[in-house]
Amino acid sequence: MKSRFSLLTKPLQFLLQLDLFSDSRTDDGGMFQSPRRKMQDPAPKKVTPSSLPVPPKTSSTPPEKSPNKRQIRLQEQWLEYSLLRSKRRTIGFLINDDGLRITAPRWVTIGDIEQAIHEKQRWIVAKITERRERATHQVQPKMVWADGAQLPYLGKQLTLRILATQSLGIHLDSDSNELRICLPADSGEQQLKDRVQAWLQQEARRVFLERLPVYAEKLDVSYHSMALSAATTRWGSCTSQGKIRLNWRLIHFSLTVIDYVIAHELSHLREMNHSPRFWATVQSVFPEFEHAKHALKQHAAHDLPIF
Predict the structure, then answer these.
(1) 156-164 and 150-153 as β-strands: parallel, antiparallel, unpaired?
(2) Which percentage of the chain shows pLDDT scores above 90?
(3) Following DSSP, what letter does each residue of 57-95 receive, concatenated?
(4) Residues 216-224, mean pLDDT to the nearest whole number
(5) pLDDT value at 121 more than 60
(6) Which tens digit of pLDDT belongs to each residue from 70-91?
(7) Torsion angle of C-alpha atoms 71, 72, 77, 82, degrees rounded to 10
(8) Most buried residue among 132, 165, 174, 204 by CB atoms closer than 10 A?
(9) How far is CA 87 from CA 69, 90, 104, 114, in A?
(10) Dist. CA 97–CA 128, nearest whole Å
(11) Which DSSP letter does residue 271 get?
(12) 3-state secondary structure of 50
């Protein structure tokens, strides 16, 4: 095992990632640089539980407070948020199922935090609205793992056809859009899932390795390697050493979405940030990136089968 000292003496390696359902953080990584003040706020007062729905609603009248929550007035509306103190140097914003969560240094005052909220209010309101709309979207029925089931693949639906046989095999019939899986008659659901997942991962590797050189050439960059990822929180990542990781579940989506993620990650080899220059780099090789980015956000949550 490498010693901790040897790891610390290595050159710093930067990592940038494209989050799964990546609308939860600010475009600059969820960070807001605060003025340095060596003072600590008093602990928030305890308040009574709230019956507000999740994500929290904004309202024109002050809502009943929840435990460990604070409130601020934005655009003639009241917004509830949770505050977490930490040793970090910046103020971080996160929109999740519980609403707005802010992580801030211990020495930053409530006044500084609320100033940061006001500066980010357009992003906050937009993301909470997106969360609410997504939560009310009609939930798609869960996939039933059986003959005739529909499997999303490259933006289309494949029909599973299970052939009871002792021989093992899996074949895609492009003409009929059927995925034919050979399994013993006594096979269970998990065996079917395992066979389909292995095939999808094989397809993902094939497609990614075909598309990566296309965008690497367009961007005039070289990447070190590509590996499949099974992360639950991100679609892809890129290190400053050129190591690309792509989530195999991208194979469920159209080639346009896959190309967007690949262009996104490779663009980090030109700009290791999410600055305007970075997005201009993405746009230079993938002009329709905004549409693909939106499609990935809107459909990711309910289009993926559970393995």
Answers:
(1) antiparallel
(2) 43
(3) PPBSSPPPPPTTEEEEEETTEEEEEEEEEES-SEEEEEE
(4) 95
(5) yes
(6) 888 877 778 889 998 988 788 8
(7) -50
(8) 204
(9) 20, 9, 8, 19
(10) 10
(11) -
(12) coil
Show the tokens assigned to 121.
Answer: 């209010």
For residue 123, what are its two tokens? 């992003």
Identity at 17, one-letter amino acid code: Q
Residue type, position 282, single letter: V
Q: Which helix (H) or strand (E) holds 299?
A: helix 289-303
**Where do we find the tokens 């020495």?**
107
Q: Which of 10, 27, 169, 34 shows the shortest CA–CA distance to 90? A: 34
Q: Which residues contact 194 (CB under 8 A, 6 or more apart)?
A: none
As a whole number of angstroms, the distance between CA 252 and CA 156 comes to 8
Taking Cα atoms as reference points, which of 8, 18, 33, 31 lies closest to residue 234? Answer: 18
Within a 10 A sphere around the Cβ of 101, how many other Cβ atoms? Answer: 16
The tokens for 89 are 């140097």
